[in-house]
Amino acid sequence: MSETASISVGIAMRYATAVFELARESGALDALERDMDALDAVLIDSDDFRDLVMSPIYSRADQGRAVVAVAERMELSENATNLLGLMASRRRLFLLPHLFRALRTLISEERGEVTAEVTASCALTDGQRERLAGTLKASVGKDVKMVVTVDEGLVGGIVVKVGSKMIDTSVASRLAKLQNAMKEVG
User: Which DSSP helix (H) or strand (E) runs through 114?
Assistant: First the structure.
């Protein structure tokens, strides 16, 4: 990990820890988790929101007004709304992806769960999700919360990240390995 990325992760972890502690003390962890999942989905799905969060051309005030308006429109909790406003005032909205990851980890640890980041070549059915969760639970010995994303570039298969472990059964990975093997031969 680069030094800049490491610093960003550290800063995001401080924000995540602070809002996590506030939510835990007030019994609002479930609401915070729902809010962060909803914001993460908006960040992934909305080019406009992603530009607002990532682009340096917007002023602090513009970012602050916009994210508070989005939070109110989404009916986010007070903790989430205040966090977004604070991050905008400090020009830290670009840390949101790191913040979401850190919060998921803190909430999972609080519940005795582990978070698995699953990337699939197509949307998983409920049955596939249940079987995968069961397999992962048997492997890690804890309840597993899965965060599933779709990447059609995998061609087929899935990539699962649990903590520092990664399992890559994608066709794209197999093709890359085959291509490397062919380069070594020829």
Answer: strand 113-120
